[in-house]
Here is the input.
Amino acid sequence: MMHLFASISFMQQMIEKSSNDEAARRCIFIYKFQCSISS
Here is the structure.
């Protein structure tokens, strides 16, 4: 659970740093996709 929380906070930091970056958006999509599968 702590690992998941750390991953979420890390992703949020990456989103804030590069919200306009195409690669970041793709990574966010993949992360949300994996998150929906695991839950």
